[in-house]
Automatic annotation (TrEMBL):
Keywords: DNA-binding, Transcription, Transcription regulation. It comes from Haloarchaeobius amylolyticus. This is ArsR/SmtB family transcription factor. CDD domains: HTH_ARSR (cd00090). The lineage of its organism: Archaea, Methanobacteriati, Methanobacteriota, Stenosarchaea group, Halobacteria. The keyword Ligase does not apply. One of its GO terms (molecular function) is DNA binding. InterPro entries: ArsR-like_HTH, HTH_ArsR_DNA-bd_dom, Metal_resp_trans_reg, WH-like_DNA-bd_sf, WH_DNA-bd_sf. Residues 1-21 are annotated as: Disordered. Gene3D superfamilies: Winged helix-like DNA-binding domain superfamily/Winged helix DNA-binding domain (1.10.10.10).
Length: 124
């Protein structure tokens, strides 16, 4: 028997990139990527996202106790949501007596504005 020729599939999937492909790259550091992922994960939950919207809409910050009835979830769920938003740098908190008030950071405000713009803008 003669030598078998490789079928077309073996040459089609070579390890060399086609001439049209470039190496994919971005300008973000690993730390910046991690921060972005943490931010997106923080608002990737309905309770946390709605809490952030309520906090951003409050003129002088929102008390954690105001969020529980507005969100319709337990105090523990509100507390956990606020902790995640705070850890992601999307809210600040200040204590006034026994109450804790939360305010949206400028980063959170910009992020919410971009989301608002993309919801109202149509792609051409």
């Amino acid at each position: 028997m003669g030598e078998q020729k490789p079928n077309d599939d073996s040459t089609r999937f070579s390890s060399q990139q086609p001439s049209c492909c470039r190496d994919a790259a971005h300008s973000l550091t690993e730390q910046e990527l991690a921060a972005d992922i943490q931010t997106l994960a923080a608002i990737g939950n309905e309770t946390r996202y709605e809490a952030l919207r309520l906090i951003a809409a409050a003129d002088d910050g929102a008390c954690g106790c105001e969020l529980e009835p507005a969100l319709g979830v337990s105090q523990g769920a509100v507390s956990q949501a606020l902790s995640r938003l705070y850890a992601a740098g999307l809210v600040t908190r200040r204590k006034d007596g026994r109450w804790r008030y939360y305010s949206a950071t400028s980063r959170a405000e910009r992020l919410l504005n971009v989301l608002d713009e993309t919801r109202t803008t149509t792609d051409d």
